[in-house]
Design goal:
Length: 299
């Protein structure tokens, strides 16, 4: 029996030469299906007969949990369904495990995801001639560059960013530490904040080792950061509903839509096991940095 990877190459030729799909559409199929087949191979599933309905459902669940927007999840499932339909039609397998999987509906509470253009517009607004403007730009850059929760952003220590390695040590839920890559743009603005703004802010209060400070020189609060975000959203006239995880969901969505693999993004987000049947293998730091640099819009 042919392996899924071999059938996928045949399927690409089918889409290109028989269906006449554009290169852009073919690239979307490629990103979706390569991620799907890598997910299956991580579970030691290599042939179409080995794929179960539960495998596809768990994969779609993980796409939802990781923060991929619903339209992208629907597109991923459509790619998977079409692939398995092709497998059956071409007699590579008699069974289509995707046949009765329902297309996800748009949940009412799903946070919106910002586009790359909206991110760019927002980041231009802080006044870089002032200490608070330098701080705001650095905070916005880092929360998006690293896919952080707000609680993780405001508790970063100034010595947790290792510039030479382009990584940040983050303390997440349940006091669990993880290492996250950080892009050049965020590092540049952070360096300027450390050089020009933080020393001026720190002398006013009790900064300790906390990286980001308010105008009184004390660690910035969750509400303080939230007010800053809402201010710039209003200034940019962006017609989006901001949620505490907006930057985090945007980070995940932009990486995944760019073609990054699911487990690498999960590692960067610090997600625990999403399903009890999936045991994530270790992903080394260099691989995460490579995935980040290749797929993050500001890497």
């Amino acid at each position: 029996m042919k392996k899924l990877t071999d059938i996928l190459e045949i399927y690409y030729d089918h889409l290109l030469f028989e269906k006449g799909l554009s290169e852009l559409t073919l690239e979307s199929y490629s990103n979706d299906l390569n991620r799907y087949i890598k997910y299956l191979s991580d579970k030691n599933i290599y042939t179409p007969d080995d794929v179960k309905v539960s495998d596809i459902r768990y994969f779609i669940t993980e796409l939802n949990e990781i923060g991929l927007n619903v339209n992208s999840v629907i597109r991923n499932l459509s790619s998977i369904k079409n692939f398995h339909k092709f497998i059956v039609t071409e007699d590579y397998s008699p069974v289509n495990p995707s046949l009765h999987i329902e297309t996800p509906k748009h949940p009412k509470t799903l946070p919106e995801v910002m586009s790359v253009q909206e991110i760019e517009e927002l980041f231009k607004l802080p006044d870089l001639e002032t200490p608070l403007g330098l701080r705001d730009r650095a905070m916005l850059e880092i929360i998006y560059a690293c896919g952080l929760r707000i609680s993780e952003l405001i508790t970063i220590n100034y010595n947790s960013v290792i510039f030479s390695e382009k990584i940040v040590r983050v303390i997440g839920k349940r006091n669990k530490e993880r290492i996250v890559p950080i892009g050049n743009s965020a590092l540049d603005h952070l360096q300027r904040y450390l050089d020009e703004a933080r020393p001026e802010l720190a002398v006013k209060g009790r900064a300790g080792g906390t990286l980001f400070l308010n105008f009184r020189g004390n660690p910035i609060s969750r509400m303080g950061f939230w007010k800053i975000v809402r201010k710039y959203i209003e200034m940019a006239h962006l017609n989006i509903k901001i949620h505490p995880h907006t930057f985090r969901h945007s980070f995940a969505t932009h990486l995944l839509e760019g073609g990054a693999d699911l487990r690498s993004v999960q590692e960067m987000l610090g997600h625990a096991d999403i399903t009890t049947t999936q045991i994530y293998t270790h992903i080394d730091r260099e691989h995460l940095k490579q995935v980040y640099k290749q797929f993050h819009p500001r890497g």
